[in-house]
């Protein structure tokens, strides 16, 4: 007799029309469209197979390791559930997101955002005043005409310009707060930049190691960190008043 063939015929009709080894002894199959990286794959898969098994199948088609696959069907496909349990039907579209190792290696430069995050992480670990770009200026020592600092005191902004500070190229810089015009004037020997206070997105500062009564301070003039304008040797008693004035948090001392 033809016993081996008899196995196949007892299953539901769609199992017997399956081409190749997909029909496993009368298990119910479902036809899926797997979409990955603009490629479409027609896949027949056992309805009682789990999400994890489907990932293995996708691996065999795409070369994408299961650990790097995000498989989406009405949200993230649960690995432990069967396709029947999550109600996958014939013709269902399964979206796969992920890059093979080769793709990852082919893209030499990580995304800018990722680079910035890494940079930000590194910067957090290391005090600003130890970073190379800042050391260049700080190693020159205090400017000879630096303003005296008063520890442990917060003072209002003086009526005269804050002077005796360096900018990041080591040139002398002074800050004038023109409150009636709502402007900060950053003056160097060459020129004076008149900035509307509202255009300054942020102000950061950190005490200078070994000279904690002075700060280094940066005014963020554009959207990225590259637009910080650094000023060194700001007397500590004015730091809060500068931040409050520039960022518009008025405090009367």
Automatic annotation (TrEMBL):
InterPro entries: UBFD1 (IPR039120), UBFD1_C (IPR057455), Ubiquitin-like_dom (IPR000626), Ubiquitin-like_domsf (IPR029071), Ubiquitin_CS (IPR019954). GO terms for molecular function: cadherin binding; RNA binding. Residues 1-24 are annotated as: Disordered. PROSITE patterns: UBIQUITIN_1, UBIQUITIN_2. SMART domains: UBQ. PANTHER family: UBIQUITIN DOMAIN-CONTAINING PROTEIN UBFD1. The gene is Ubfd1. Residues 30-97 form the Ubiquitin-like domain. SUPFAM superfamilies: Ubiquitin-like. Residues 1-12 have a biased composition (Basic and acidic residues). This is UBFD1 protein.
């Amino acid at each position: 007799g033809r016993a081996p063939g008899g196995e196949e015929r007892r299953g539901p009709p769609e199992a017997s029309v399956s081409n190749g080894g997909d029909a496993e002894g009368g298990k119910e199959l479902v036809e899926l469209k797997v979409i990955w990286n603009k490629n479409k794959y027609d896949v027949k898969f056992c309805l009682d197979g789990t999400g994890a098994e489907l990932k293995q199948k996708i691996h065999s088609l795409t070369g994408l390791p299961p650990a790097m696959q995000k498989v989406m069907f009405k949200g993230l496909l649960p690995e432990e559930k069967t396709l029947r349990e999550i109600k996958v039907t014939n013709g269902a579209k399964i979206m796969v997101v992920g890059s093979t190792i080769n793709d990852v290696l082919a893209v030499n430069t990580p995304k800018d955002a990722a680079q910035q995050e890494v940079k930000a992480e590194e910067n957090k670990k290391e005090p600003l005043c130890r970073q190379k770009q800042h050391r260049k200026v700080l190693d020159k020592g205090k400017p000879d005409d630096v303003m005296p600092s008063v520890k442990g005191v917060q003072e209002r902004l003086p009526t005269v310009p804050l002077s005796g500070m360096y900018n990041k190229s080591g040139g002398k810089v002074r800050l004038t707060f023109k409150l009636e015009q709502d402007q900060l004037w950053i003056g160097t020997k060459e020129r004076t930049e008149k900035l509307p206070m509202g255009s300054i997105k942020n102000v950061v500062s950190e005490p200078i190691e070994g000279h904690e009564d002075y700060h280094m301070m940066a005014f963020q003039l554009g959207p990225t960190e590259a637009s910080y304008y650094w000023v060194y040797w700001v007397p500590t008693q004015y730091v809060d008043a500068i931040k409050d004035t520039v960022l518009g948090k008025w405090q009367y001392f």
